[in-house]
Design a protein that fits this description.
This protein has about 80 residues and is mostly helical. It has two domains: about 1-35; about 45-79. Helices cover about 90% and strands about 0% of the residues. It is built from three helices and no strands. The chain has helices at about 1-35, 40-75, 75-79.
Amino acid sequence: MKRQQRGQGRRETDQQFARAALAELREVWPARRLARGKRLSETTRLMRLAAETREMLALWTYYRLACLEAMEGSHMGMA
């Protein structure tokens, strides 16, 4: 009995959330459809972000390898 009540409460909450999300989507969707020219700038921005992420990952990897190499070659690595 309690499980059914909890399930019903969750379903109602989920339905309210879905309705709110749908209402927000209805408000935003027409503005997004009109702004088709912005897609190129968003694509460019995402490509730049991906390139920066790859660069940061490469720098981090290089840094970690340098740290490991330093630890192996020094007295600190022997401890």
